Amino acid sequence: MSNKPLNVGLVGGGKGAFIVHPHQKAILMDGTRRIVAGALFPDPKIALAEAANWAYPIKGYTSYDEMIAANATLPADQKLDYILIVTPNFVHFDPAMKAMKAGIAVFCEKPLCLNLKEAAALVKTSRKLGVPFAVAHTYLGHWTTRLSRYIAQSGLLGDIRWVDSYYIQGWLASKLEATGQQQAAWRVDPKRAGGSGCGGDIGTHALMQLRYVTGLEITELSAQMETFVEGRQLDDHLTTYCKLSNGGKAMVRASQICIGHKNDLGITIAGSKGTLVWRQEDPECLTILLPNQPDRVYWRGAVSAGDGFLPKNMPAGLLAEPTIPAGHPEGFHDAFARLHRCFEGDVRKWKAGKKFTSDGSQYASVEDGWAGLAFIETCLKSSKKKGAWTAMPKKI
Ligand SMILES: NC(=O)c1ccc[n+]([C@@H]2O[C@H](COP(=O)([O-])OP(=O)(O)OC[C@H]3O[C@@H](n4cnc5c(N)ncnc54)[C@H](O)[C@@H]3O)[C@@H](O)[C@H]2O)c1
After folding, report:
1. What is the pTM of this model?
2. Ligand 1 pocket mutation, candidates 53, 87, 187, criterion most atoms within 8 A of CB
3. What backbone phi and psi angles, to 5 degrees, belong to 123?
4. Cβ 364 under 6 angstroms from ligand 1
5. Strand (E) or helix (H) holding 345
6. Which of 164, 238, 324, 355 has its CA 20 to 30 A from that of 55?
7. Within its chain, how far is the Cα of 369 from the centroid?
């Protein structure tokens, strides 16, 4: 395949949309990817008008059906290289499925879709057709998350005994949806959000952070899904106590009613040798706590292998992941860019007929998206039974 930038088509992203904007900055960040097309809005006229008003020229389509059909029959080097799905949850499954069948790779927002049945169908199709598929679990893209994963999985913390993985917000502490606020309105509607509100929206991020960093799976959980704001149909607060695949324990918790909390996602991992602490609101560093020693703070880009805690033989790929120098802070957009960059690598290999991994080590895979839905459905079952211990489904 040539070195020309990969062509990306948007599904959603018009008129007041939120998450399309960090994505589009991240797509453009390296100069090797660009957005060239979009089906930006459900109303066809508005969709075209929004595309015509895009900051740079893109081809507008009246619907994602039209955009995917127009590309399906083009030769591989002319069709869209991937689509980015940034619609509410109920408009994930259909465009993802249709794009894969049209030979277009998929980068889809989380949660992957509305339920486990849809998720299983997406996994099966991506495996059968061998199409690269990413799920937008943003926080895996922080370099310090990658370092956390290395530290936890290479045994530097000892046996992992306890994990607290959380995502706490306050923006839905009152009935914001009643004002017609766009992002709140669909997130509290079961038809558009799925079976869980807070759990699906941000609990899945906390789950993914735990799974990605520790490499452990939840085997059983006891969940309380609660709704504090009167008249709301879906949960706005989720607490789960979990058994982990190594015999350890964890909490995965999420809330949208904690006034003052913004995007307070973080993870504490307590092992038999030490503890790791990371918070996404301060994403340029992580802290290691060891017995009878001063705390060690590791900053992105300023890490030395063989420093007495980190071993000499750290993976070169991890140390070399291209970034701006330490002290020029990276953030949310850079995390998204790292995910798109890694996905680009797999899409280029796929297009060149080479093997690609899409194994969840660089960005969340479609199987990880399935695990998010498995978690939500298990929480729903457990919570209905007043928090009874409930087994997670076997890995797909
Ligand atoms: N990864 C993250 O950190 C993160 C953060 C926020 C949101 N999200 C996810 O991103 C998705 C979108 O969330 P948002 O907050 O940006 O929502 P939003 O309401 O701001 O934007 C959704 C956009 O999709 C459009 N849309 C709806 N149906 C469509 C259709 N059939 N065809 C074309 N466009 C259509 C809407 O008009 C709107 O432009 C959700 O799945 C959400 O969970 C992820």
Report:
1. 0.98
2. 87
3. -60, -50
4. no
5. helix 332-351
6. 324
7. 8
